[in-house]
Design a protein that fits this description.
The structure is a single chain. The chain is an alpha/beta fold. It has 2 domains: about 160 residues, Glutaconate Coenzyme A-transferase (3-Layer(aba) Sandwich), CATH 3.40.1080.10; about 230 residues, Acetyl-CoA hydrolase/transferase C-terminal domain (Glutaconate Coenzyme A-transferase, 3-Layer(aba) Sandwich). Helix content is about 30%, strand content about 20%. It contains 14 helices and 24 strands. The strands form 6 sheets. Strands 13-12-11-10-14-19-23-24 form an 8-stranded mixed sheet, with helices on both faces. It has a 7-stranded parallel sheet with strand order 4-3-2-1-5-7-9. A 3-stranded mixed sheet has the order 16-15-22, with helices on one face. Helix 6 crosses helix 7 and helix 13 runs antiparallel to helix 14.
């Protein structure tokens, strides 16, 4: 293809696309909207190109398959834009957790182009990956052409594996606002729910958590804790509240792969030495997690059955997400001295019409966690501590935290299940 210019434009990068190529594009807060806009101006360039990356439902709303009828995508999370292509055979959906995704991307031998959105290089030529350090180092060493989108709005964050500007084959500069994420304001029920979870967290614990309204409520409920630390795949803006209230303090006390929030939060993660970023190969390494004393994994779910099996990514037989990072953090918590795993979910869905504590996972439900991983299950009605309980006792504990209107039917269903044993 010849020598590439060191400085280019997004449109010149699109000119590099050829049928049969595989192109890695970062997701979450690292997604380049400038490059996507260039693709939208030239959709014919996407013909027979396979796009890959970790694009997250509810955060990344780009539609790479929609660029061209012959575009392809290799994905790890179901998104609305993927459904039609999945039915047509134009998208591959791999059922992998985060460590598995990292290994899969590391093993791909045909990545023709990889793009990274970065902050302007420092005086030593190192480029920070801003709020998104997750998967770049899986693909960067083997990509044939490495593209840098220098975004002056990107915060220069501290992290374990910055990119050297000399590693880019070509660069373009474009100032764009980063993808934002608003956790939303928790309601009264979520606040009560969060208090149950906070009661399981001890001072000096190291926490992992996801994103969303309930997770935001849990963080708010931890304001009066002290000497907490964070080791997580993602962090969102509500974590700043814990810093401001003194619940977390110290350099690199918050370590994560990705940050999600608003402009003020993105500015803070660059200025505050409390934040330190790592790739998935480090944040989701079960051995690293297991070596952290008092590690507490806090995750959400769609439903939990009376065996303790956890469904985190399918709803009424419809896949709505992917496996994600939960298995690694739960596994690490089991290995850690004083470790705990907490699954927090509302007791009902559809305005109280459906129980999220179910007798058994249905034919269309997918188990992200098997029953032997179950530890604490928490709803707004209390805590079911399952570790060490027999089958009967754990079923009783789970029925006890289900919504009251479903407890009798769940108890009857359990009697039938147990009779078959």
């Amino acid at each position: 293809m010849g020598a590439l210019p060191k400085l280019s434009t997004p449109d010149q990068v699109v000119d590099l696309l050829r049928p049969g190529m595989t192109v890695y594009l970062p997701g979450l807060s690292g997604e380049s909207q400038t490059f996507l806009a260039a693709l939208l101006r030239r959709p014919e360039a996407a013909a027979r190109v396979c796009f890959t990356g970790v694009h997250f439902p509810g955060i990344n709303r780009s539609n790479y398959l929609g660029l061209h009828p012959q575009a392809r995508q290799r994905a790890y999370f179901m998104q609305p834009a993927l459904r039609a292509g999945f039915a047509e055979g134009r998208s591959e959906l791999l059922p992998l957790d985060y460590p598995g995704i990292f290994r899969d991307l590391s093993a791909l031998g045909n990545i023709d182009i990889a793009l990274a959105q970065v902050a302007p290089p420092d005086r030593d030529g190192r480029c920070s990956l801003g709020p998104s350090w997750d998967f770049h180092c899986a693909v960067w060493p083997r990509a044939k052409i490495r593209i840098g989108h220098i975004n002056p709005s990107f915060p220069r964050t501290r992290g374990s594996q910055p990119l050297d500007s000399a590693s880019f084959d070509t660069l373009f500069e474009a100032d764009e606002p980063m993808l934002g994420y608003d956790s939303g304001e928790p309601d009264e029920a979520m606040t009560a729910h969060a208090a149950h979870v906070a009661g399981l967290v001890r001072d000096c614990d190291t926490l992992e958590f996801g994103v969303g309204k309930l997770q935001a409520a849990i963080l708010r409920a931890l304001r009066n804790h002290r000497r907490l630390r964070i080791y997580s795949g993602m962090v969102s803006a509500p974590v700043a509240d814990l810093l401001d209230h003194g619940a977390i303090e110290g350099e690199a006390a918050i370590q994560a792969g990705v940050a999600l929030g608003d402009a003020a939060f993105y500015q803070r993660i660059g200025a505050d030495a409390s934040f330190y970023f790592r790739p998935v190969s480090e944040t989701h390494d079960v051995r690293r997690i297991g070596a952290i004393d008092n590690f507490c994994a806090i995750n959400s779910a769609i439903e939990v059955d009376l065996f303790g099996q956890v469904n985190a990514d399918s709803l009424n037989g419809r896949l709505v997400a992917g496996v994600g990072g939960m298995p690694a953090f739960v596994g690490g918590a089991r290995m850690a001295a004083g470790g705990r795993s907490i699954i927090a979910l509302p007791s009902t869905a559809d305005g109280g019409a459906v129980s999220r504590i179910v007798a058994s996972l249905g034919a269309g439900s997918l188990a992200a966690l098997p029953r032997h991983e179950a530890d604490y299950i928490v709803t707004e009605f209390g805590v079911a501590q399952l570790r060490g309980l027999s089958l009967h006792r754990r079923a009783q504990a789970l029925i006890g935290v289900a919504a009251p209107q479903f407890r009798d039917s769940l108890a009857g269903a359990w009697q039938q299940i147990a009779a078959r044993f």
